[in-house]
What does this fold into?
Amino acid sequence: AEWLVSGMKSGHIGLWTVRHDEGRRIALLAKHKKPVSVLRISPDEFGLVSGSWDCAVLYWDLNCGKIARAFAGHLSQISSIEFRPTWSRESFAALSANEKVTANDDADEESSDDGSEKEIGLGDPAFDAKTTSPVLLTTSIDGQCYLWDVRAPRTLPHGFNPAAKTPRWATSACWSIDGSRVYVGRRNNCIDEYDFAMLGAEPVRTLRLPLNSGPVTALAAMPNGNSLVCASTDNVRMWSLGDSPRDAVPFHIVAGHHGSTVSNILVDDQARYLLTTSGNRGWEGTSNNVFLGYEISPLD
It folds into this structure.
């Protein structure tokens, strides 16, 4: 890595060097009006998606530091942003080659050959869950879970309905490793599992943690496709997504965090390391300011 990004309470986003002249800020992205709550770099590493307490989701072009497009629809503070994993760096490179977007504050138009401006070249394509389109998943603290086709910034988002009697709350969501499922952590000790091909439907399954676990604040899918790492107030757990005997416990405890709010979980692509951080990100919960790293070993 040569640089990193950080969100600020002021709503600004800093771009910093980490290899040459370490710690120097080389750019400041300013558009959000309230604290930045989540940042996600695009798979091609030329774009950055930011979410804020001002309910805005913005796609930045890192080549020029301008907003390439904006996604409007959330009514509360943005809590998580994830690209669908079926879209690789090569896929984004191919998209960029076919679709040149003019970076501007409105982020809705493209330059044509004659110098005039028109809508994005791909138009407003229909959202098709059966094709590997560049899909963005966003959640907000009020429980909204939306899916966006990044080629069509003017279309309304598509989302999933929460299960009956589920509190309107979500701080984390993630994709399965193959992009076919979406997992959303809920306040009532549950994780809702959705089928990507069934937009607008209720969860196909709900993973229920012990009653005293507390809200699920962070999620990460394991590259093996069989496990989901979830964090609640009492512990971090690695949940088996396969069929387990009825009397078997479907998860393993990952010791380390206990009694504090986990803000983030990161698993590297090769499933060698698991990283967790503690923090409430400005919402409810307590933090012990702990960062833990784990080495992952397969079970015999």
Observations:
- Confidence is low (pLDDT under 50) at residues 99-127.
